Amino acid sequence: MGLEGLKLLAEAREQTGLLVVTEVMSPDRVPLVSTYADILQIGARNMQNYDLLHAVGRSQRPVMLKRGMMSTMEELLMSAEYILSHGNDRIMLCERGIRTFETYTRNTLDINAVPMLKKLSHLPVVVDPSHGTGKWDLVAPVARAAVAAGADGVIVEVHPRPEEALSDGGQSLKPDTFAALMVQLRAIAQAVGRTL
Amino acid sequence: MGLEGLKLLAEAREQTGLLVVTEVMSPDRVPLVSTYADILQIGARNMQNYDLLHAVGRSQRPVMLKRGMMSTMEELLMSAEYILSHGNDRIMLCERGIRTFETYTRNTLDINAVPMLKKLSHLPVVVDPSHGTGKWDLVAPVARAAVAAGADGVIVEVHPRPEEALSDGGQSLKPDTFAALMVQLRAIAQAVGRTL
Amino acid sequence: MGLEGLKLLAEAREQTGLLVVTEVMSPDRVPLVSTYADILQIGARNMQNYDLLHAVGRSQRPVMLKRGMMSTMEELLMSAEYILSHGNDRIMLCERGIRTFETYTRNTLDINAVPMLKKLSHLPVVVDPSHGTGKWDLVAPVARAAVAAGADGVIVEVHPRPEEALSDGGQSLKPDTFAALMVQLRAIAQAVGRTL
Amino acid sequence: MGLEGLKLLAEAREQTGLLVVTEVMSPDRVPLVSTYADILQIGARNMQNYDLLHAVGRSQRPVMLKRGMMSTMEELLMSAEYILSHGNDRIMLCERGIRTFETYTRNTLDINAVPMLKKLSHLPVVVDPSHGTGKWDLVAPVARAAVAAGADGVIVEVHPRPEEALSDGGQSLKPDTFAALMVQLRAIAQAVGRTL
Questions:
Q1: pTM for this structure?
Q2: Quick check: ipTM above 0.85?
Q3: Which CATH code of 3.90.1150.30, 3.20.20.70, 3.20.10.10, 3.60.15.10 fits the domain covering A3-191?
């Protein structure tokens, strides 16, 4: 994302009060992106980009660390260690689906990873059902599953006109479907003794 | 399971009022097992045992068809077709975990399969978090996820003394943990507009 | 395979002097098939059919044991142990491809398994490039690779008119292509210090 | 690799007449590495690092493009297209093993990929049996398999004292084992109508 994009995100934050999380893709971009974003995201393809992990570790910014689609939970936790080694412990682990032999869905969301990662670490676990399924009509049920399994958050792609989206339109919810999902997630969170 | 085992199951049914579901492993055993069991289970390893699928199809008994750990959803639905071809449509599809590169868990439970199979067929979908995780302390969160994702049932292994179980002790719940789980599942079912 | 089929195989043996290897799919068929076949084949789907493994073990017939498409080498060797436990050590292990995320080929032939299985056991290792690739034009190069890696044999599907084959036509060689392959395999065998 | 390392490689080239191939890991390093290396290697983890692909494409240097361990052949060919789009068609595709459920070997070398990639493109295909197996005693048989399957080259790790290697010692050959392997590869190349 270029400087213009970052400025737009910052403006959106100002107008809405929402925090900004955005991906940083190379170590030398960390200072700039840190100026505009509240949370630095490490994408699945960069989960083992060690220079980048060190850079976001040094930045002391909160980090959203996405599991690689080819990575084990052990490798995800080892990547988190690189960030932790700089004293930066504000890390969220994100399960976003792994690659398997199944072809009906884009990835196979590893729901086991939610309780397993929480058992193995004290870090919050976030689930991305948009990438984890690749199909917009599976997003809501899998998001509900994530909260029921104990996830601390979900990332859901939303677009006002998915059919015109530049990318990932097929896995994006429309705003009203998203709003309906949030009502369901609130009910499930309550059912498992949590609040949203 | 031998004749003695089947008689014990039938006795348990009489005393408790519970239905009996048990696995049948070869076509020539279908008539005998059908005498004692309410539901015939096809195990994951037999999902593509076509002689057996035809035999349970002809039996007209309800069938619990488990997905093979190496089988796609498409193959699971094709196996169901073999049973359906005899006019037997009382089939439950069971997701019980697939084999992936991940090694922290015995299998990777494919939570995407719950909404996907329900979208592709009208058959009920059941989830087995005991085999799907292989770890007793992951069973409850993944069972909750299954119900939240829309599963029509869950299969949970329970044993009064798991450490003495002849098999699968490591993935079995104790009765009181199971009872607590049922309370949670009821709450989640309600949250997604269903009843237990 | 029914009795008629077995009789035809026996007749083919008589006319050609070739040995007969054919699959046996249930324990109660072992005695009959043993009467007609020189080698009993356990198909990939039956690799963990323990009743069948015991039955072919007791038969004392040579066994071709095919690796399941989602089975580890460790599981293949454990299945061989079932047969060995009856004192039947005439077992050939057969690598025929495993299921992976790759979709351009029907299976991924695990060439590493050839030297690895030979290192872990004293059993001959055979490779099936027809199932291992699923494409007739990949069969010859992968058969050559198998011999170069140390395989003790290859299984190659041949059909005079592949386009009319009842099954697996797409992975079958025509007789003249097969003959040309045999010339190549002989040269490679010699290059690695073996004879055909 | 730092500047000192690159200078050492260049010196080794001068003394031995061997070409230098070394990995480049970020777009801004491409000019420097191009000064010292004859061939730029894109590592498996960077196979979908599009900025890097564009940079090596623009460099007009020969490129060794390694397949990601969880990447399909289709994705490998698409990555090659990024380089080709700059008119740089001196690309070698390298199969170095994919991740599967098998645990006895570090990766599963996809031997099918050799003939399949050659069928789908006109690019040379190189095989890396060191990473593809992860075990030094499997390297020679799998290297032989690669040449027999039609590979245009192999990458083999060699170290005078593997037990002291800083990395990958367990998959490295000693010089004399490597020399013996080269004799075998020459014989196999000849057997399949090629010369080394």
A1: 0.91
A2: yes
A3: 3.20.20.70
